[in-house]
Design goal:
The complex is a heterodimer. By secondary structure, chain A is an alpha+beta fold. Chain A is 53% helix and 16% strand. By secondary structure, chain B is an alpha/beta fold. The longest helix of chain B is centred in the N-terminal third of the chain and has 13 residues. The chains are: A alpha+beta, B alpha/beta. Chain A: It is found in: Membrane.
């Protein structure tokens, strides 16, 4: 991996941000410390100047002049850096200031002034001028060189401490970025292999539970699901091909024979009619598949409204009653007249009920019973379709929901094997849960019981104020 | 075509052939449809694109139009909307490979009067066209008289030659639909959609069983059968001359 790549990693950018924050913090610390020291030093200088001025004011004029002249040997030199005596016209009498500093007023207030000596560089003084006996003016000043030295020292120590810290942080950043980048590179390679078609490949995920591992874990779970779905699609594709091949082969054989043979017009019409029936079977499979696809894709719920499940159930029973009667099966609606509201699409729910009742009638023998019941269930609703037919074995209960699954027991009964897939697709769209169990209403046969629980009807959102 | 697919026998012989505008870009299907409809006494004008369909549809005086949804140059739904916008009220049957409920709804909302999905049986198409051209009279009449049958819509009673026939509510609804469309082929899908308001294709022969039960009540043994099965297509309430 290149340095540029390394420097572009999130880890390295994070390191840079930390370094910047460190430098900022140190600079802040320095400036705060310095300003505190400066304030303190000013106060101390001013106090010293005032105190010395008060002491010297009491001296006699000759003594004062003498003291100023001798200041070089005096301990005054240590505390007071400059001292001078001027006459009322600001002419120097004695001391080491030979020229009255610009802006100085003899009012007993300490000022900060820059003096410009002819032979030396200008420098800043805390300076105090007080009138003393004999019309003279005593000027005392204290330099800021200690403060300057302190500032220099602090700056040096700051640089000395910050440079290695920053270097160390940057090095850590580079190492960490390198590590992160190495893991990402491995992941990239894995993803490239997956994109090249190796669907069994997974992202590396070790035992560390950091965010990268968790992300890799999530992606792997997603890949598992995708692989499973792809397998399903492939299986479904094979099943479709198989289920379409059979009727199409029949059509082809019939037409082939009709073309070659010397059949009568009536016989030919019969061949054509049977061919049309076979093609219709193909179309019904295709239509059912398209419907399932459409429902599974359609997260849109345009047709959803609050509808009365009771009313739909009564309609369906009314629709199927003659069929049940013809097969000598009793079809009952076991529920009251009170409406049972659910939130759903009327057409789709009719399709669910029609499929379930259709199946129940199909798998129940003459003399059997099929019942449909709708009740309020908590805040939602529960719908049951029970029959006294052959039932569904517990191990097959999940499989019947899959496309094209047909139990061995039902092979001889016509149907596309897609009805229950359609039912479960529609119920998923409604967030309704489907369970299959035994009816056990008769000793000899288990019977199948399809129970559907619908979620509560959502309360309408309050109208915007 | 065989002898069973003659034009409607109850139609007056001198009536000019009904004119159909077929807008369909698939040449093969268009040819099949045109030949079939012409053999049934329709006069068919075929257009391949939406824009030519529009200019012909605006100019010609058609009795019914068949419009495919997906057309070159101008989409079928836009074509219908444009026609409706120019005050053309000719009944339109929308033809489409798209069968989703949403597609159906959008087709009808655009101004279509009926919707047929591909693949379709020619009989279904013809039956729906006939139904479109003779839209049921939704007049506020309270009595229906068709041949020997009389139906009182208020009292909910039915008589055949003055003899009362007891019907269940669903049988009454079905017979009412048939009596409003006598001598007209009604397909199973039309009955499911219009009588029961269902939009799915049941695997069992639901409609046949219902018609069978109704038939046993209407056509007593020995009497002229009124409800006839049309093989492979549907049913018809045929009124003897």
């Amino acid at each position: 991996m290149s340095l540029g790549e390394l420097l572009r990693t999130a880890t390295f950018r994070l390191t840079l941000a930390v370094v910047a924050a460190m430098i900022g913090a140190a600079a802040l610390q320095f400036s705060l410390g310095y300003s505190q020291t400066k304030t303190f030093e000013f106060l101390r200088s001013d106090m010293l100047l005032h105190r010395e001025a008060a002491l010297l004011e009491g001296e006699k004029p000759q003594d004062l002049e003498h003291k100023i002249r001798d200041r070089a040997t005096d301990d005054l030199r240590v505390v007071i850096n400059q001292a001078a005596l001027f006459d009322a016209q600001h002419h120097s009498i004695a001391g080491d200031l030979h020229k009255w500093p610009d802006g100085l007023v003899a009012d007993g207030h300490v000022r900060e002034l820059t003096v410009w000596p002819t032979e030396d560089a200008p420098y800043v003084l805390r300076i105090l001028a007080v009138p003393v006996a004999g019309g003279r003016i005593l000027v005392l000043a204290r330099g800021l060189h200690m403060l300057d030295e302190l500032r220099l020292m602090m700056r040096h120590s700051l640089l000395v401490s910050i440079v290695p810290t920053v270097l160390f942080a940057l090095m850590t950043g580079v190492v960490l970025s390198h590590r992160a980048l190495a893991r990402v590179t491995v992941m990239h390679e894995a993803i490239d292999r997956i994109m090249d078609g190796d669907l069994h490949e997974r992202l590396p995920s070790g035992r560390e539970r950091d965010e990268m591992e968790r992300l890799a874990g999530s992606v792997n779970r997603m890949l598992d699901r995708l692989e499973h779905l792809m397998d399903e699609i492939r299986d479904v594709g094979n099943d479709i091909a198989h289920d379409l091949r059979t009727p199409l082969a029949r059509v082809r054989a019939r037409l082939d024979r009709a073309q070659g043979g010397t059949q009568s017009a009536d016989a030919l019409r019969g061949v054509v009619a049977r061919a049309i029936d076979d093609l219709d079977q193909c179309f019904s499979i295709i239509t059912a598949l398209l419907r399932i696809g459409e429902i599974e894709n359609a997260r849109r719920r345009v047709g959803f409204a609050v509808i009365d499940l009771q009313e739909i159930a009564a309609d369906i029973v009314d629709l199927y009653e003659p069929i049940a009667e013809a097969k000598q099966i009793r079809l009952d609606l076991l529920s009251g007249n009170a409406p049972v509201p659910v939130y759903g699409d009327r057409d789709l729910l009719i399709e669910v009920l029609a499929n379930l009742i259709d199946n129940a009638i199909k798998f129940t023998d003459a003399g059997g019973e099929v019942s449909l019941s709708v009740i309020r269930y908590g805040d939602g609703a529960r719908l049951e379709v029970a029959d006294t037919g052959i039932g569904i074995a517990p191990e097959e209960r999940q499989a019947v929901m899959n496309r094209f699954y047909r139990s061995d027991k039902s092979r001889h009964i016509p149907g596309s094997g897609l009805g229950l897939s359609l039912v479960s697709a529609i119920l998923r769209l409604h967030n309704a849960a489907l369970t299959i169990s035994d009816t056990r209403r008769r000793e000899s046969r288990p019977g199948a019981l399809f129970g559907i629980v619908f979620p509560p009807v959502p309360t309408p959102a309050p109208p915007p104020a | 075509m065989n002898a069973t697919s003659k034009p409607d026998p109850s139609a007056p012989a001198q009536e000019p052939a009904p004119r159909v505008l077929l807008v369909e870009d698939d040449g093969k299907i268009a040819q099949e449809v045109a030949e079939e409809l012409e053999s049934r006494g329709f006069s068919v004008r075929h257009e391949r694109t939406g824009s030519s369909g529009l200019s012909v549809g605006l100019g010609g005086n058609f009795d019914v139009m068949i419009i495919d949804r997906m057309l070159p140059e101008m989409d079928g739904l836009t074509l219908i909307e444009t026609l409706r916008g120019r005050q053309v009220s000719t009944p339109v049957l929308v033809l489409s490979a798209m069968s989703a409920v949403d597609d159906r709804v959008s087709g009808l909302k655009a101004g279509g009067d009926d919707y047929l999905t591909k693949p379709f049986a020619m009989e279904e198409l013809a039956a729906r066209l006939e139904a479109l051209m003779r839209r049921p009279n939704n007049t506020r009449e309270t009595m229906l008289h068709v041949g020997p049958l009389a139906m009182d819509l208020i009292e909910r009673t039915v008589t055949r030659d003055g003899v009362v026939i007891e019907l269940l509510p669903r049988e009454f609804r079905l017979l009412e639909y048939l009596m409003r469309r006598p001598n007209q082929v009604l397909t199973r899908n039309m009955l499911l959609e219009d009588v029961w308001n269902y939009r799915f294709i049941p695997q069992t022969n639901l409609v046949d069983v219902h018609i069978g039960k109704l038939r046993r009540k209407i056509d007593e043994p020995g009497a002229t059968p009124l409800i006839q099965s049309i093989r492979g297509t549907g049913f018809m309430l045929r009124i003897p001359e």
